[in-house]
Amino acid sequence: MRFKRLEDQDLAGKRVFIRADLNVPLDQRGAISDDTRLRASLPAIRLAKEGGARVMVTSHLGRPEEGVCREEDSLAPVARRLAELLAAPVALIKDWIHGVP
What we know:
The chain has 101 residues and is α+β, with helices and mostly antiparallel strands.
C-alpha cells in the first residue's frame, strides 16, 4: 500500500490541518520547560507553509475537561514558542469551531 506523502502534494492555496502532539511540560510559571515535541513538528509545518498552504495546527495541553476552559490548558505558551521557532507570527484561535479567518 502506498501512502500519500505531504511532500508529494500540491499545497499552494490549500488549508492543511496538522494534529500534532504538542503536550509539552510547563514549569511553575507556565513556561515551556522542554520544547522537543514542538521541534519535532517543525518539518511538517514548514513543509506546508513553504508549499503555500494555510496551516492550522491543533493539539492540547494537559488533560482538559470537556466543556471547561481553564487558563492552564491554554496553548498560548505553545503558540509563542512556535512563533519563535518558525520566526513567523502564530495566531492562537481559541474558538475555531465555527470556522477560521
